[in-house]
Amino acid sequence: MSIDSLGAAVPLAGGQGAAAPLPVPPAAAAPVPVLRSLTVRRPPMGENGLFDYFIRDDALVWSRRSDGMVGFGEAARFESAGRERFAAARAWWAAVAGAARVENPLAEPGTGLPAFASFAFSHASAHVSRLVVPELVVGRRGDTSWLTYTTADPGAELSVQAAEERLAVLLDEVSAEHELTRGGDRLVPGQVSEDGYRAAVAAGVAAIAAGKLTKLVLARDAVAELGSPVAVAQVLRELALRYGDCWTYAVDGLIGSTPEMLVEVVGRTARARVLAGTLDRAGAPAGDPGYAHRMLAGDEKQRHEHQIAIDSLTEQLGPLVERMDAPAEPFVLELPNVWHLASDVEARLPVRADGTSPSALDLAEALHPTAAVCGTPTAVAGALLRELEGMDRGPYAGPVGWVDAGGNGEFGIALRGGVVESPLRVRLYAGCGIVAASDPEAELAETWAKMRPMREAMNL
What global pTM score does this model have? Predict the structure, then answer.
């Protein structure tokens, strides 16, 4: 059962009351634009790859190791909320892709007609989920680089020259850098105080001890109040450079760099990266190369938390695939701020009666939320975390990424990031997996470690 089968309301930010599930218009009622799209091959990029295009605060970004896509402008948009937000988005995207006139000589995932996407964690959230089709997309996958130009204007010229000229105009509008002012930037408590988080963790441990569930993921927030407008492009560059093994993302003010892949779909192959089990690198002893493996892989609490997450994913994915390969042993993922226990899972997707295979959007809906961001059993954990957290997660820990007209796509879990609420206000989020052996003080410290990427990127 998904968390979205639960109807409990979630407190809104700022104590504005409870957010009731929002209605979703029927897919047939949503406008379906007729898009025209042209993809052209470009010369290979330099060593900076996509980093050279991280220059506008309003760009849409999905990037890892300087590969990925950067989107500019907007050709079409769809928004949904409530229990049917995924289904409504899938229906709209299928209609748009079916009606589009696409010229694409390349066979790379992400070429042709792509959309960037972000979904709220809970159906009860006040946050609106969305699909955004950019006007222009600059993409890179290894040695292959491309430019996609998409328009809903039937009279617009669709040519290589028009695409390059439009890109040149957009790239000429570089966003300003963030100005540091004395005492102007500060981090203040969010909806959940440190004491409140400690109390929530203690209550979660008590519920686990009582046998109500085996794992609960509790999150909290903090707010960056800035003396001058946030420079989103600058933050994204810092994140991408510091956390090259993570997926750096930006969709409508949701920004961050996540180490966890919910699902990647390329043709009939699906992949996921599961993380559960965390060790802060701050204070780790020098000259001890086996420290992280010993403290994570050799720790019963960390292994137990990781196994719960793996079991949750494989149970959800199993009925949807023909076969699946899940490793017996996790590996230690090394990031600049923390170490994680990690496992990469790969599966073969079936061919359905209509000749298609499940898309990235299909699997994102089926897999969300995982035990790594909610708990086990999911339904029990979902109800309890809403009771104990005391905040609306918004898009935090929801799927974020992209999908193309062929069903290929990548959806990470929106972790290690935040939401730009205004030019002078950014809300950061972090959460921890709570099991029977969890300690409230240690879990609070872990949330600070997980906020470190955004704090450092914003120079807080």
Answer: 0.90
